[in-house]
């Protein structure tokens, strides 16, 4: 089992502190993790050209930091996203990386429930935890964030768990809320 941590909040508190604690949580469980601070990386916006599906299968033609992230994403069993929450959505840096993650999908279609999605290129079905940070409680943003994570997890063929922390809660004990992730239980 291996993990991938994508930090869309950077070195600023509380994002780096949460990433450090998540890495420690994984290390105790002997799960090696690749860590990327997306705020310090050049990640170009997706051009929507679909060359990663048709001309260079599994590879984006754009030469930037996503080239080093995609191999980890393709083989990750556990994926952790850390992000500020903006109007219920992901922060800019994480959103840009997620847009560029389509090379791990195939251009074909499969039915999941009553919906049509793309199958995974490499067959990995990961467990996904998204940790979002809000400055204060906001029920609507929290609801939207949870639903967004759930919907993205369907696209990624992953079990999902979303966790929203408010300013000041990052120092509280939240790691136990990640345990269902390893047990393979959705929230």
Describe the fold and architecture.
With 187 residues, the chain is of the alpha/beta class. The protein has one domain (3-183): Rossmann fold (3-Layer(aba) Sandwich), CATH 3.40.50. Helix content is 31%, strand content 23%. It has helices at residues 15-28, 51-54, 66-75, 92-99, 139-155, 179-183, and strands at 3-7, 33-37, 78-86, 89-90, 110-112, 115-117, 127-134, 159-166. Strands 1, 2, 3, 4, 7 and 8 form a 6-stranded mixed beta sheet that branches. A two-stranded antiparallel ribbon has the order 5-6. Strand 5 (110-112) and strand 6 (115-117) form a beta hairpin. The model has no long low-confidence stretch (mean pLDDT 93).
What is the name of the CATH class?
Alpha Beta
The portion of residues assigned to helices is 25-40%
Order of helices and strands: EHEHHEEHEEEHEH
Strand elements, count? 8
Largest sheet: 6 strands, mixed
| Mean model confidence by pLDDT | 93
CATH superfamily: Flavodoxin domain
Separate helix tally: 6
Query: Helices and strands: which structural class?
Result: alpha/beta
Strand content: 15-25%
CATH topology type: Rossmann fold
Tell me the radius of gyration.
16 Å
Unreliable spans are none
**Molecular shape:** globular
Q: What is the domain total for the residues?
A: 1
Per CATH, which architecture? 3-Layer(aba) Sandwich
Distance between the termini: 21 Å
């Amino acid at each position: 089992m291996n993990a991938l941590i994508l930090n869309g909040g950077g070195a600023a508190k509380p994002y780096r502190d949460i990433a450090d604690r998540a890495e420690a949580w994984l290390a105790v469980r002997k799960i090696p993790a690749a860590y990327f601070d997306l705020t310090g990386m050049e990640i170009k916006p997706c051009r929507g050209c679909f060359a990663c599906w048709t001309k260079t299968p599994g590879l984006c033609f754009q030469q930037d930091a996503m080239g080093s992230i995609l191999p980890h994403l393709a083989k990750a069993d556990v994926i952790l996203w850390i992000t500020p929450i903006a109007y219920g959505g992901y922060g800019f840096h994480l959103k840009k990386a997620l847009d560029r993650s389509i090379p791990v999908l195939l251009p074909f279609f499969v039915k999941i429930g009553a919906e049509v999605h793309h199958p995974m290129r490499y067959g990995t079905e990961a467990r996904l935890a998204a940790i979002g940070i809000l400055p204060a409680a906001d029920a609507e943003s929290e609801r939207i964030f949870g639903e967004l994570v759930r919907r993205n997890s369907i696209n990624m063929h992953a079990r999902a768990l979303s966790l929203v922390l408010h300013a000041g809660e990052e120092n509280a004990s939240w790691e136990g809320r990640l345990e269902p992730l390893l047990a393979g239980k959705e929230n």
